[in-house]
Amino acid sequence: MSTLITQKHKRFPIKLFFVSLLSLGLFACGDNDDTPAIPDVEEPMEYSYSVMITNLTYAQPLSPIALSLHNDTKMWMIGESASIALEKLAEGGDNTDFLSSENNIVSTSSESPLPPGASVMLDIMTIDPVATYLTVSTMLVNTNDAFSGLTGVDISTLTIGQEKSWNLSVYDAGTEKNTEAAGTIPGPADGGVGFDASRDDTNLVSYHTGIVSKDDGLSNSVLTQAHRFDNPAVKVTITRTK
Q1: Which of 46, 102, 124, 204 suits a disulfide with 174, CB 3.0-4.6 Å?
Q2: Domain tally for the chain?
Q3: Do the domain assignments include residue 28?
């Protein structure tokens, strides 16, 4: 009888020990862990570009350069009417409306006109994966409504460190007659009026036929042979940097 009592007393503390452990939650099962998993947050990809614009003309300053990235669209088309934004840029060098176009996903501008023979570098960045089309535009300011640029160019295949270049011709916005007359040229050759809401030309964008000048028989022109330009008038080089 005394032996049995001794055995019972030996077993009881062990059972109590395991009950205590369970009550304290020290035996946890990994399969029942209710802690919510924290999902990995993927950083958006950044697309960065450096764009070099060079003025190739002899005596045609370029208005501040407008640069934008957007989806698959074009800001002008040969044989179609210019938008008001393009008219303002091509007649007076004002790129404000052009930069704020609803088509643009991101845009930027150089701070000042670009003198003949000079270059300017503009940087632009986006995290929007559909912003893969490039537009560059500027006015030749010693003209009535001549502009140069490229629009809706697909740059989606550029890899980091890769560059691509274009030599650009000059367009006529078709919104103002090319009279070259005093008071109609906004550049330093005249200091005349820029944008005028009325349109007195073909109202169609076309390739520019060039400057005539007073030296070549246009007696009322304020321009000289120095203001004439050859194509290409502008060089653009884009490099993907990130």
Answers
A1: 204
A2: 1
A3: no
